[in-house]
C-alpha cells in the first residue's frame, strides 16, 4: 500500500507541476499579445529622427486599412514600372510594395515597416535615379515619401 501511495503522490506532483507551467505559459503569451497589440512605443525612433519624421506609436495604423490603402495606391503604378515610370514613381512603388508585403504577408506593424523600409531605401538603386531627376537630397526625398504615405494612411 505504501508503494501505491508513493507512486500516486509523485504522479500528482508531476501533473501539478506540468499544469502550473502550462497555465504560466498561456498567461505569459496572453500578456505579451495584449502589450504588443497597440499603444507601445516605436522601437525605431532613431530612424525617424535621422529622417526628421514622426515615429508613430505601435497600433496607430490599422493593418487591414493599410493593406487596402497601399493596394489602391500601387494598382495604377504597377503597369508603369519598367514601361515609362519616372524614377520617383519607381521609388514610390519600391517603398510601398515592400511595406505592403511586410504588413499584409508577414503581419509586421505598419509603424515599424514604414521606418525600416525607409532606411533600407536610403542606399537603393531606385534612390540614385530619383535623386538625379529631382535634384534633392535623399533624406529629404525619403522623408517626403514617408510623410505622403502616412497622410494617405490617416
3D architecture notes:
The protein has 154 residues and is mainly alpha-helical. It folds into two domains: 1-37; 41-153, no CATH class. The protein is 75% helix and 0% strand. It is built from seven helices and no strands. α4 (87-106) runs antiparallel to α6. The longest helix has 35 residues, at 2-36. Residues 28-37 have low confidence and may be disordered.
List the helices and strands and how they pair.
Elements: H1 2-36, H2 45-51, H3 63-77, H4 87-106, H5 110-121, H6 125-134, H7 138-153
Helix pairs in contact: 3-4, 4-5, 4-6
Give keywords.
154 residues, mainly alpha, 0% strand, globular
Number of helices: 7
The total of beta strands comes to: 0
CA radius of gyration: 24 Å
**Mean pLDDT, rounded to whole units?**
79
Terminal CA distance reads 72 Å
Uncertain stretches of 5 or more adjacent residues: 28-37
* Category by helix and strand content: mainly alpha
- Helix percent reads over 70%
Query: What is the element string, with H for helices and E for strands?
Result: HHHHHHH
**Number of spatially distinct domains:** 2
**How much of the sequence is in beta strands?**
under 5%
Assembly annotation: single chain
